[in-house]
């Protein structure tokens, strides 16, 4: 037996050595990639791998960080502001009734295969998006047709006036895709299978390597007019937050996206690390089920009492370590329409108790629905439970899987539920019309199942006017009503925190593009 | 033996049918809607409904099942909702990594576990027995996510001996694809750079994964060795002057191994399953992470594909265990 074993091992060793030598003499198939200097490449640690990268399919912020720099759009957000500036389009105009938008394209933009970007490509991208009819298409339900009268003119006809239209074009919903993707079509999928794993855009970067489950690499689009300093960007999947922190400290990654707020503090003392902190437009709030939940919640006074029962500063400290600002009205600070004088609820236990008494409610028990979708929700739910206990409201926690929680929210199977919201476009419409219009009951936006005929009417008016100052007044008035009706507990507006290596330069945080990097302007 | 193998293969068809039915029903009755996940945060009811129709989710469940089985019979596992890739391609992409990790951990567990068990049995209730007990029991008791993090902290954080995650260095091209196992492929293509990097990357996750299974093998080997060593034929062998290595390996171990093979077989299944957590900690690009993401997204085709794949794997492992019995114990042939 011993002899046989020795013989087998010797044969294996001999075999591997001979094959090794034979192949080695023919130049090894892989060698260290020395083409890129260290300071022209950037490594970002991300928490999870991506699903599809097809711009017409994905609604996922983390996929957008790959697609956004690989494609171009008609317009772009301007630096750190929520205003738009020229992109593929050099100028644009809108008809008086707001239904016809005309864009004139810049020349010289090219897809990564050297095909010029023209009006036909723009028309194709919109038509493909609407035909594929997945998530991003829902933003454009108002488009009735897209035309390309000349090679550099695109005309959109809308079914009705939709003032936020321009702003949606700067977000990630319509990236202009090379029409040649149709060569890759399989079974009538309009290239969805191909674009799930490839990019075909005119942005400064393109997807070069995707080792599933390991990393995603972007390289330069040789035909782009922009010549970025970072030649290679790697998004490395490091799912464990402690491992991300360790790799950032050791300089193995330049940016660590997935470090939770309770671990951020310890990074502040690390020599080579800097912490970027900016107010974001992401708000965290509680839905109070105003028509399908506990009977007591139909009474405005009970909902107000809940709003008075929260100690906002201490909740923000407990849940976000202070890296957040209490909300003032539904529209976050930083977006036009924000009202500096809007009423802000503060802790007033006596008032809360007397409101409950006036409503004839005592010994009420409410369930609070949440999921593991956000790491901080567990602490938040516990904090709310203990704070509301002080005004005599018993809260029963109901934690379920994320997909299940969405289903229950849509059906209204909860009394209270935790939620976050960030805008799809830079317009108060993205908060007000979604949250308070009774047309949007359920997941679509009115997650409190709140209905007020007056509010519905004012919202419709604000949604179809092109006059921004008039809309601002309208939204201000609506805010007064809804803050008093209190279908939500407006908790806070979260800060965006990003730990990165001190040598990373040029990153601009745009609150409309959270999690997306302006790679073309960055350097090391 | 051929008869048994044939019987098992027929049995496999029923397993596939049963598992597919149960998984299909379970994954469709839990509350949650992949169409809503796909439509995004703020999609309208109409948009969600439209996607539901595209995915065929508006059909009665039995029609959906029949459609799925039709595809399955022609070898089509469907398209993943999340990645938009054919599920079979996704599995083919991720499975070799899981298998490579599980095999590496398996080899380590056997190479350490069996000798440790023998030592424990021979030095029963002495220092080495106690030491091996403490060592192996702590492997089962410490959760993988903890031992994994500690390993990363020590071997990557302080000592810098091994990388913290991944399967191969990002700046090295993976070896030419032959078997999809990086270590074997780099050996076959003689790519020493890729080999070194793959070995460096697999050490930590494989050690951590095997550590959890070590106790089961060690304790089993110890128990069966003790039983065998007290048997009369061993005493006779001793009386005939056979001792030391010869006695332990040729006489005792061969018989002690028969019950151990079952344990080892099931522990390989556990390694495949346990790889899920290990893969997450070390970002090993295997099926574990893929299926966890798919479950969170309610990606039915991916969940179904994974479950079927693993069930078939289990049946085949059991078959291999039984075949090993035949080889180890000729009496079984009767």
Question: How are the secondary structure elements laid out?
Answer:
The complex is a heterodimer of chains A (524) and B (334).
Chain A lengths: L1 H24 L15 E6 L14 H7 L7 E3 L6 E3 L2 E6 L5 E6 L13 H14 L10 E8 L2 E6 L6 H6 L21 H4 L9 E7 L3 E6 L11 E6 L3 H9 L5 E2 L4 H4 L8 E16 L11 H9 L3 H9 L3 E3 L22 H10 L6 E7 L5 H13 L4 E7 L1 H10 L4 E6 L7 H8 L16 H11 L4 H18 L2 E14 L23
Parallel strand pairs in A: 1-10, 1-11, 14-15, 14-16
Antiparallel strand pairs in A: 2-3, 4-5, 5-7, 6-7, 8-9, 9-10, 12-16, 12-17, 13-17
Helix pairs in contact in A: 8-10, 13-14, 14-15
Chain B lengths: L1 H28 L4 H6 L5 H11 L5 H13 L13 H36 L4 H15 L2 H15 L23 H7 L3 H38 L2 H8 L4 H39 L4 H10 L3 H29 L6
Helix pairs in contact in B: 1-13, 5-6, 5-9, 5-11, 5-13, 6-9, 7-9, 7-11, 8-9, 9-11, 11-12, 11-13, 12-13
Q: Provide the gyration radius of chain A in Å.
A: 27 Å
Mean pLDDT of chain B comes to 85
The run of helices and strands of chain B is HHHHHHHHHHHHH
What portion of residues of chain A is helical? 25-40%
Please tell me how large the radius of gyration of chain B is.
24 Å
Can you tell me the residue ranges of chain B where pLDDT is under 50 for at least 5 consecutive residues? none
Structural class of chain A: alpha+beta
Tell me the fraction of residues in β-strands of chain A, as a range: 15-25%
Number of strands of chain B: 0
Q: Which percent bin holds the helix content of chain B?
A: over 70%
State the end-to-end distance of chain A: 61 Å
Describe the biggest sheet of chain A? Answer: 6 strands, mixed
- Strand tally of chain A is 17
Report the total helices of chain A.
15
Molecular structure report:
The complex is a heterodimer of chains A (524) and B (334). Chain A has 15 helices and 17 strands. Chain A has a 6-stranded mixed β-sheet with strand order 13-17-12-16-14-15. A 5-stranded mixed β-sheet of chain A has the order 8-9-10-1-11, covered by helices on one side. The model of chain A is unreliable at 1-36 (pLDDT under 50). Chain A is an alpha+beta fold. In chain B, helix 6 crosses helix 9, helix 11 (244-282) packs parallel to helix 12 (287-296) and helix 11 packs antiparallel against helix 13. Chain B is built from 13 helices and no strands. At the A-B interface, helix 1, strand 10, helix 6 and helix 12 of A face helix 2, helix 3, helix 5, helix 7 and helix 9 of B. Chain A: It comes from Terrilactibacillus laevilacticus. Chain A: This is ABC transporter substrate-binding protein.
């Amino acid at each position: 037996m011993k002899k046989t074993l020795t013989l087998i091992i010797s044969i294996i060793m001999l075999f591997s050595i001979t094959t090794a030598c034979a192949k080695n003499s023919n130049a090894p198939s892989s060698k260290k990639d020395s083409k890129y200097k260290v300071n022209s490449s950037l490594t970002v640690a991300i928490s999870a791998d991506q699903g599809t990268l097809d711009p017409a399919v994905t609604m996922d912020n983390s996929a957008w960080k790959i697609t956004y720099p690989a494609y171009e759009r008609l317009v772009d957000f301007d630096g750190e502001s929520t205003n738009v500036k020229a992109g593929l389009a050099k100028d644009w105009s809108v008809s008086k009734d707001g239904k016809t938008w005309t864009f004139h394209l810049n020349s010289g933009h090219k897809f990564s295969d050297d095909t010029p970007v023209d009006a036909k490509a723009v028309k194709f991208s919109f038509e493909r998006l609407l035909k594929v009819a997945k998530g991003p298409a829902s933003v454009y339900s108002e488009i009735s047709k897209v035309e390309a009268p000349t090679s550099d003119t695109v005309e959109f006809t809308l079914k009705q006036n939709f003032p936020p239209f321009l702003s949606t074009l700067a977000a990630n919903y319509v990236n202009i895709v090379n029409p040649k993707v149709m060569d890759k079509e399989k079974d009538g999928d309009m290239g969805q299978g191909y674009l799930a794993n490839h990019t075909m855009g005119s942005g400064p970067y393109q997807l070069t390597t995707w080792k599933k489950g390991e990393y995603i690499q972007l390289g330069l689009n040789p035909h782009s007019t922009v010549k970025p300093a970072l030649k290679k960007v790697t998004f490395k999947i490091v799912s464990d937050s402690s491992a991300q922190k360790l790799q950032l400290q050791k300089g193995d990654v330049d940016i660590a996206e997935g470090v939770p707020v309770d671990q951020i503090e310890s990074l502040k003392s690390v020599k080579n690390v800097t912490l970027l902190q900016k107010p974001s437009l992401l708000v965290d709030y509680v839905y109070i089920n105003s028509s399908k939940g506990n009977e007591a919640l139909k009474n405005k006074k009970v909902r107000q009492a809940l709003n008075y029962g929260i100690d906002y500063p201490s909740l923000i400290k407990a849940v976000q370590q202070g890296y957040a600002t209490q909300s003032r009205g539904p529209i976050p600070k930083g977006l036009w329409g924000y009202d500096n004088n809007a009423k802000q609820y503060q802790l007033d236990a006596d008032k809360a108790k007397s409101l409950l008494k006036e409503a004839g409610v005592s010994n009420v028990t409410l369930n609070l629905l949440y999921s593991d979708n956000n790491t901080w929700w567990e602490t938040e739910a516990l904090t709310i439970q203990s704070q509301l206990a002080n005004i005599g409201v018993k809260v029963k926690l109901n934690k379920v899987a994320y997909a299940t929680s969405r289903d229950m929210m849509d059906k209204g199977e909860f009394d209270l539920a935790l939620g976050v919201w960030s805008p799809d476009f830079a317009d108060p419409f993205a908060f007000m019309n979604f949250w308070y219009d009774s047309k949007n009951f359920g997941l679509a936006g009115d997650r409190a199942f709140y209905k007020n005929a007056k509010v519905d009417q004012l919202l419709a008016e604000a949604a179809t006017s092109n006059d921004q100052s008039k809309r601002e007044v309208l939204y201000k008035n609506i805010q007064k009503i809804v803050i008093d009706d209190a279908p939500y507990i407006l908790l806070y507006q979260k800060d965006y925190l990003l730990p990165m290596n001190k040598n990373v330069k040029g990153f601009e945080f745009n609150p409309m593009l959270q999690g997306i990097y302006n790679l073309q302007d960055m350097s090391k | 033996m051929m008869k048994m193998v044939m019987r098992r293969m027929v049995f496999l068809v029923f397993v596939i049918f049963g598992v597919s039915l149960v998984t299909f029903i379970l994954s469709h009755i839990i509350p949650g809607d992949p169409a809503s996940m796909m439509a995004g945060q703020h999609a309208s009811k109409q948009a969600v409904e439209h996607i539901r129709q595209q995915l065929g989710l508006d059909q009665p469940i039995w029609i959906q099942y029949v459609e799925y089985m039709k595809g399955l019979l022609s070898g089509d596992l469907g398209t993943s909702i999340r990645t938009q890739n054919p599920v079979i391609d996704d599995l083919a992409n991720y499975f070799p990594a899981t298998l490579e990790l599980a095999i590496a951990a398996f080899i380590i567990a056997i190479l350490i576990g069996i000798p440790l068990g023998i030592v424990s049995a021979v030095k029963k209730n002495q220092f080495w027995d106690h030491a091996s007990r403490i060592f192996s029991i702590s492997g089962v008791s410490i959760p993988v996510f903890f031992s994994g993090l500690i390993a990363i902290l020590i071997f990557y954080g302080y000592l810098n001996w091994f990388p913290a995650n991944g399967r191969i260095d990002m700046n090295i091209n993976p070896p030419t694809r032959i078997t999809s196992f990086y270590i074997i492929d780099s050996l076959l293509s003689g790519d020493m750079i890729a080999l070194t990097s793959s070995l460096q990357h697999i050490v930590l996750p494989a050690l951590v994964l095997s550590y959890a299974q070590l106790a089961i093998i060690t304790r089993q080997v110890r128990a069966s060795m003790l039983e065998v060593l007290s048997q009369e034929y061993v005493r006779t062998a001793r009386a005939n002057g056979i001792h030391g290595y010869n006695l332990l390996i040729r006489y005792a171990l061969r018989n002690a191994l028969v019950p151990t093979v079952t344990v080892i077989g099931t522990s390989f299944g556990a390694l495949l399953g346990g790889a899920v957590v290990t893969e997450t900690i070390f970002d090993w690009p295997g099926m574990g992470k893929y299926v966890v993401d798919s479950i969170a997204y309610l990606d039915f085709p991916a969940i179904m594909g994974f479950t079927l794949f693993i069930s078939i794997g289990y049946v085949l492992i059991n078959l291999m265990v039984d075949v090993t019995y035949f080889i180890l114990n000729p009496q079984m042939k009767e």
